Amino acid sequence: MSSLLHESELRHESDVVWLEDPTPLDYVRQALDKTPRRRGKPRYHRDGRMVGYTELDQHAEADPDSGLHRRRVFFLLPHDRDTQPHGVYQIGAPGEAIDPRTIEPGRVGEKTPRSQQGTTAIAAASS
């Protein structure tokens, strides 16, 4: 489980929406972003690309001070393993990285050997 998020922060998630097929990805980064709406594609203000996001149920309340909802966003940065397989994350992964196969509404997601070591490293170790 990711050390950066807690499932109590995700209790109102109803759906995970993928903007691209997560199957070939060893990992995605996850973060909680503040958005004005419970549903629909949120704005994205990072380098790289958003690959998915969550939608909230009708019981999710906005923050009383800001009026914004906290929703999970899944993204990749330009130097991540999917675009630079021999780069800094050839083996290892950023702290917020989780295996996209373990993502479900209301669950943080998990770090797996694939997300942390990469498919190339796993294949080499099993040879």
Overview of the molecule:
The protein is of the alpha+beta class and 127 residues long. 10% of the residues lie in helices and 25% in strands. It has two helices and five strands.
What does the secondary structure layout of this molecule look like, with pairings?
Elements: E1 13-18, E2 28-35, E3 49-56, E4 69-76, E5 97-98, H1 113-117, H2 119-126
Short account of what is shown:
The protein is of the alpha+beta class and 127 residues long. 10% of the residues lie in helices and 25% in strands.
| Poorly predicted spans | none
Structural class: alpha+beta
What is the H-and-E element order?
EEEEEHH
For the CA atoms, what is the radius of gyration?
Answer: 15 Å
What's the β-strand tally?
Answer: 5
Biggest sheet details: 5 strands, antiparallel
Helicity, in percent?
A: 10-25%
Mean pLDDT: 90
Distance between the termini: 28 Å
Which labels suit this protein?
alpha+beta, 127 residues
